[in-house]
Amino acid sequence: MTESHHDVLIIGGGAAGLALALEIADRRAVTLLQPSPDARGASRWAQGGIAAVLSPCDDVEAHVADTLVAGDGLCDEAAVRFTVDQGPAAIEWLLSLGVPFTPDPDPKAGYPYHLTREGGHGARRIIHADDATGRAVIETLERHVGAHANITVRHDLSAIELMADTAGHCRGARCLDATGQLHALLARDTVLATGGASGLYRHTTSPHPASGEGMMMAAELGAELMNLEFQQFHPTCLYDPEGTPFLISEAVRGEGGYLLGADGERFMPTIDPRAELAPRDIVARAIDTEMQRSGLAHVWLDIRHLGEEAIRHHFPTIHAHCAARGLDLAREPIPVVPAAHYSCGGVGTDLAGATTVPHLYAIGEVACTGLHGANRMASNSLLECLAFARGCARRLAEGSTASTAPLVERSWGTQRPSREQIGELRDAMRGVMSTRVAIVRSDAGLDEAAHALAEIHERLAPHLAEAAPDAEAASLWHALRLARLTVSSARARRESRGLHHNPDCPLHADTPPSPSRIHLSALHVPAETPIGNG
């Protein structure tokens, strides 16, 4: 095993990790792990845009209020205000870097860039780069990161676990290269920007979703996890069982798209007065109900009435992608289905991204900051990445005293796990989560999920006991334990709130809502990864 020393180690190369690297690199040396283009995270696939108070017709209080409503009583108002307050400055920063946001051609517009509206928002406040905002932001940030002399980007390493010392401090990460060689990256401060846990489910909106690996790496060091039961399902993922996942942006409904049921009629107006512009949890649950009522595998999203010129203008990426799959959006509705999209829970942090483990930070979707509560409002996620990257950078700029306690040592076996078995167990886990712990959960279904995941756990653990370090096996081990903790959190919440809907307890609880908090000890298994015999 090789060993190297680093100042700030950032694990993850999506919007949060890249933004933090740029914000702190003038003051501290940065090593950023972005193992492959696929590791750019979910940020790259974000279509809709970034929510911020930019129009003179909008105001901070309105954005705060809309976010609190969408979060269904579980948001931390301080985190909401912290994030919303930073919106305009964060957008100005991105503009200064050259992000090509779409201009507004209307000379009477109160803001020079086009602002759209999405579900849950009471105003047009979503700035975007056509319908490929995530790609535009990531490519711009990558260009600046690549040009900064104080940032080293490593594409050759994948983190499999965090390193701890006997004082309980985080000291960096153990990583693998493509040949299976182990590398210890010792760091003064370590930041997780590894994404969420949509990969626990069979159908997602990202071709390469994270499965909560960063969350569990933090939990192994004793970090607190929060609100794992609140997994957001995007209402409108393109239904194409033979193709790769593709998100149909919230903005499609924001610009006037209608959801149609089996009879070809709209069903949202009878469910919520906001109709298609209701928050995502309401829309996703309504689609799920319509699918179950009709027996169909999907519903339809209709934008034909907008006209081909408007469709091509507002949604060029979506139009082109659907055309490549044989769909003409100007002449036929889009088949859509809800898919796992965003984790509102994660590693608990403060407003600077600090976890309960000294020298360990978490930003972006891996973190639970209190912004999203029980349901994330559309386009608040990229805003959160920027706001907390900047907050974390301010904290890191203060410097810290490095721990000198001895490292907790690890030892490893020599056996390589079977690829076939890892694939089989991951598919089994995703099947359980998709059928029992998705949009609607029941007590009986959660009980079945708990038992099924425990059995998968028992099948996997013996094969890892003497295993050599392995990236795929480590990912599955992290994912499986997070799935079990997610089920535990869902069983413990005896109410329906936001993204967690259980018909066996369909109403809000009588007591004031509070975040769910859970530690790895809830599984009654050793904290360390059993990949090896350490």
UniProtKB/TrEMBL annotation:
Pathway annotation from the record: Cofactor biosynthesis; NAD(+) biosynthesis; iminoaspartate from L-aspartate (oxidase route): step 1/1
Record GO terms (molecular function): L-aspartate oxidase activity
Disordered: annotated segments: 494-517
Gene Ontology CC terms, in alphabetical order: cytoplasm
Family annotation (Pfam families): FAD_binding_2 (PF00890), Succ_DH_flav_C (PF02910)
Protein EC: 1.4.3.16
Name this protein carries in UniProt: L-aspartate oxidase
Organism for this UniProt entry: Halomonas caseinilytica
